[in-house]
TrEMBL record:
Name assigned to this protein: Polysaccharide biosynthesis protein C-terminal domain-containing protein
Topology term for the membrane: Multi-pass membrane protein
Subcellular location: Cell membrane
Keyword Cell cycle belongs to the record: no
Alphabetically ordered keywords of this record: Cell membrane, Membrane, Transmembrane, Transmembrane helix
GO cellular component terms given for this protein: plasma membrane
Presence of the UniProt keyword Glycoprotein in the record: no
Chain ranges passing through the membrane: 26-54, 66-84, 105-124, 130-151, 172-190, 196-212, 256-277, 289-308, 320-338, 344-362
InterPro entries reported in the protein's UniProt record: Poly_Biosynth_Transport (IPR050833)
Length: 389
């Protein structure tokens, strides 16, 4: 959240412009976004450090072995990491816009692995919290420099600077960036917020029952991660004059993802009870109805994530994000009211809201691809290749 969604919005815009042959436009977006993200991340880091200075977090958090000065140094390191990491996410856009998503993701994964290794080594060598935090910063910095060098070889025209930066390019990213933030915020409300309401209304025992059932059903959503590489290709394929290739890839991706979601859901439904008992050791009672409702909610959530790529790939998710924010705002009061009916009523609320949003995303996906419901259903659920034009 340190870049407020601007890195993702910029990456998608760069991919679309580069695919249209507007390399100068893609470069202008990159440069404008780099300046804006640097200012935003430094501002957020400053607010973060200001809050740490204003509050005695050591006493507030009950820390006994970390004093105020040590805690301030740790927070400073984490703030620096935040600033560097926000630029790393934008650099990833260089790979994204030339359709080398896998290579860029591999570099990001290597950076994360390097952070883990550096912080673990610092801890093994007897370093304290400051040493561990500093190791994470240095690993992030080294990874960012490495990514920049790799990107310079792969995409030599993508360079930092101020030439060609236009205010209009930056302003155009504002709405899709903030809309992109609505999705993770809404998901946080759906998962963490619901858990908090259950704890307040029904007590900790109900939280344990609910979260164990829900955690198992969320295995369905794992396959949706396959959608991320497709976004880069969809951004590059988008062409208003000929939507057929964009539509064909959208259908093919939906066919793969929807069928994968349904297949995993079937597997979870068949062996979920056995896994649950083994996992909890019988300490938590298995509720078949609750499990079924939460599985239905997980499937609905995974399905809208599966059909979402063509919408967000071209930064057309603003309207969808508004609806998601409204549903997220409605969710917690509905859960609060449903708590009188117990966990089954709360699970039913989740199913209804997820289905409503799935219908919203699906309709928007049809609009941006120029598809029709009947043709899409035949392509995604029918026999054969399912591509079509």
């Amino acid at each position: 959240m340190s870049d407020l969604g601007f890195a993702g919005a910029a990456n998608r815009e760069m991919a679309m412009r580069r695919a249209r042959g507007d390399r100068d436009g893609a470069l202008a977006v990159f440069r404008g976004a780099s300046v804006l993200i640097l200012a935003l991340s430094m501002g957020l880091a400053g607010l973060f450090l200001g809050g740490v200075a204003a509050l005695d977090l050591s006493a507030l958090l009950g820390l006994q072995r970390i004093g105020p000065q040590m805690l301030a140094l740790v927070m400073l390191c984490l703030a620096l990491k935040l600033v560097i990491e926000s630029q790393t996410r934008l650099l990833f856009g260089g790979f994204y816009c030339v359709q080398q998503y896998a290579r860029g993701f591999l570099v990001l994964a290597a950076i994360r692995l390097g952070q883990l290794g550096a912080s673990t080594l610092a801890l093994i060598c007897g370093g304290g919290p400051v040493a561990v935090a500093l190791a994470m910063v240095l690993a992030e910095l080294a990874g960012g420099v490495g990514m920049r060098l790799a990107l310079r070889r792969r995409v030599p025209w993508l360079r930092y600077g101020l030439h060609g930066v236009r205010r209009a390019d930056i302003a155009a990213l504002l709405r899709p960036a903030l809309a992109g933030m609505a999705i993770p915020l809404g998901l946080a409300v759906s998962h963490q917020g619901v858990r908090l309401v259950i704890g307040v209304m029904l007590g900790p025992a109900a939280v344990v029952v609910f979260t164990t059932h829900r955690q198992l059903t969320r295995m369905v959503s794992v396959v949706v991660s396959l959608a991320h590489p497709v976004q880069a290709e969809l951004s590059a394929l988008y062409d208003r004059s000929d939507p057929a290739p964009f539509r064909a890839l959208s259908r093919a991706a939906a066919r793969l993802l929807v069928r994968a979601v349904l297949a995993v859901a079937l597997g979870v439904a068949l062996i979920g009870g056995m896994v649950f008992v083994t996992w909890t050791g019988g300490a938590v009672g298995f509720d078949t109805v609750l499990f079924g409702l939460l599985l239905a909610a997980a499937v609905a959530e995974s399905l809208w994530l599966a059909v979402f790529p063509p919408v967000i790939a071209i930064n057309r998710h603003i309207g969808v994000a508004r609806i998601y924010l409204v549903l997220s705002a409605v969710l917690l009061p509905c859960v609060w009211a449903a708590a009188a009916g117990g966990l089954l009523a709360i699970a039913a609320v989740l199913v209804v809201l997820e289905l409503v949003f799935f219908a919203t995303v699906l309709r928007t996906a049809w609009q941006v691809t120029g598809d029709s419901g009947a043709a899409w259903l035949r392509a995604v659920l029918g026999p054969g290749g399912g591509g079509g034009r």
